[in-house]
Amino acid sequence: MLKIAICEDEEQHKKILVDLIGRYPFEAEYCLTTFKHGYELVEANRTGIKFDIIFLDMRLDNEDGIDVANEIRKTNATVRIIITTSLIEYAIQGYSVNASDFLLKPLPEEKVFHVLEKLEHDIRLSKNNYHEIEINNERVFIKCDEILYFESLGRKIKVATFESEYEYYYTISALEKELDSLRFVLCHRSYIIHLKNVKSIKTKTAILKNGTMIPISPKRNQKVYDAFTRYMAGLIE
């Protein structure tokens, strides 16, 4: 799910942006949060709400949008920040906070939709290349190609790579919904394997490229075999 924030102190422009985002045909589900003050956005970010996209007004009441963006960047280096401004001169300052784009008010629909299309595409590619987890309020990005398997450990998930293992609080059911079903498959109620790193499939067992043997439940055996076959066929094509 995409997490989107709007930080805008002018109600007219906020309503326009909320309406445009609501009418854009997102491919994924999204949630939208609005803020009137920059310090509210910074506090939300500090307490662990990690937004994917932020529309940030450059000239908030008694606040500088660049200062707000710099505070957010301290704990969220990957968020896409879109500068909104009435003066194009302010947009140039966005480069100092690695802004993804800028929108010149009064926020034309065509431009807003173009920006959203580009951002959704970029975020989808990024999430396909990296798996993001949170450990002790710190975001950790793991290359998907390095992931061997996920294992459910009660309230935690263990993710094993060729070099390391990580544990974090999550559920296997939620994880299955988030992962790319063409690359990852639930082979057992406690295991999800990465098909890229499977060496072979045997009855009741997936043998990974590092030699690890992962159990396959009898009722999932055919599904896992079919998924592995499709994956390998896709590589040949």
Automatic annotation (TrEMBL):
<feature type="domain" description="Response regulatory">
    <location>
        <begin position="3"/>
        <end position="120"/>
    </location>
</feature>
<dbReference type="GO" id="GO:0003677">
    <property type="term" value="F:DNA binding"/>
</dbReference>
<dbReference type="InterPro" id="IPR001789">
    <property type="entry name" value="Sig_transdc_resp-reg_receiver"/>
</dbReference>
<protein>
    <recommendedName>
        <fullName>Stage 0 sporulation protein A homolog</fullName>
    </recommendedName>
</protein>
<feature type="domain" description="HTH LytTR-type">
    <location>
        <begin position="131"/>
        <end position="230"/>
    </location>
</feature>
<comment type="function">
    <text>May play the central regulatory role in sporulation. It may be an element of the effector pathway responsible for the activation of sporulation genes in response to nutritional stress. Spo0A may act in concert with spo0H (a sigma factor) to control the expression of some genes that are critical to the sporulation process.</text>
</comment>
<dbReference type="GO" id="GO:0000156">
    <property type="term" value="F:phosphorelay response regulator activity"/>
</dbReference>
<keyword id="KW-0238">DNA-binding</keyword>
<keyword id="KW-0597">Phosphoprotein</keyword>
<dbReference type="InterPro" id="IPR046947">
    <property type="entry name" value="LytR-like"/>
</dbReference>
<dbReference type="Pfam" id="PF04397">
    <property type="entry name" value="LytTR"/>
</dbReference>
<dbReference type="Pfam" id="PF00072">
    <property type="entry name" value="Response_reg"/>
</dbReference>
<feature type="modified residue" description="4-aspartylphosphate">
    <location>
        <position position="57"/>
    </location>
</feature>
<dbReference type="InterPro" id="IPR007492">
    <property type="entry name" value="LytTR_DNA-bd_dom"/>
</dbReference>
<dbReference type="InterPro" id="IPR011006">
    <property type="entry name" value="CheY-like_superfamily"/>
</dbReference>
